[in-house]
Amino acid sequence: MSKFLTEKYQKLKPYTPGEQPKEREYVKLNTNESPFPPSAQAIERAKAEAEKLMLYPDPECKELAGLLAEKCGVSPDRVILTNGSDEVLNFAFMAYCDERTPAVFADITYGFYKVFADLNGVPYREIPLKEDFSLCVDEYMTADGTVFIANPNAPTGLALPRAEIEKLVAANPSRVVVVDEAYVDFGGESCIPLTEKYENLLVVQTFSKSRSMAGARLGFGVGSPALIEDLTRVRYSTNPYNVNKMTMAAGLGALSDEEYFKGNCRKIVENRAWTAAELTKLGFALTDSKTNFLFAKHEKLGGEELYQELKARGVLVRHFSSERIKEYNRITVGSRKQMEILIDTIKTILEERK
Fold first, then answer.
1. What is the set of domains in the chain, with CATH numbers?
2. pTM flag (> 0.90)
């Protein structure tokens, strides 16, 4: 840290992204990336746009916004495209939170919420999840501020039904509710249909997980035209060219290949079920994940210890050190081969401890 850094950022604790080690080849199950490559249509369209990189991209993302709106069943003025879903989440913190309007979110959820609050100088309140990691919307009904809910939640993997979210949104029309649906395509129930009914609901999704585009950085928000206008005002005040030409083209290709998208989601759900069953046989307790990852702890093997043992053997998972979840590891659901390697490696570790 230099002596020039302003005081407001000196105590900022940045988000810690998942490890991206280069020192050896890992079975990489730590950052919830898809094990499948992007759609061939996405790749071909991105390649074609590479020849036009001397030109700025369309700041309105008109073609992509139009196709995305069609897929979501809404009008284009209800959609905003961003550089990953993290960007639209940050825009929401900037637009709908301040000293008088705090942010409200769970104590165990996506770690970036706390970072965005600190980055923007926003006070926040954390509401503890229940003992079983479920979220009770009744505890948010009278919460003062802008509510952020990851649904399905990360790292717990649990999902709320749409009706529960609607109950929360309808309870207080004078506040904004932001629903982060990064993992919704693996078993959750999207709240996008509710955005035409409620003007205080913003739904955020990403192309990173189910559409195999984590490296492209493409996210979006869906809400009332007024909310999208707010977020666009913030976007144009930071970086109007936030989605590059190749990413925009890849997004069009990905949306045009529905069969590939659905097939990959189906395989991940199948691999999740198989892995969960195998882990249960080995003495693990798991949450009922509706995501592309599993959240698991072992009755006799600590979370940190298992993480380290797996890493030493070339399998990378995600461990969190916070008190309530330190015995758990978050395990990305990869290909069947990757999951078989994971299970075989855990079996070896457990055998060595007998």
1. 19-36+259-352 (3.90.1150.10), 40-256 (3.40.640.10)
2. yes
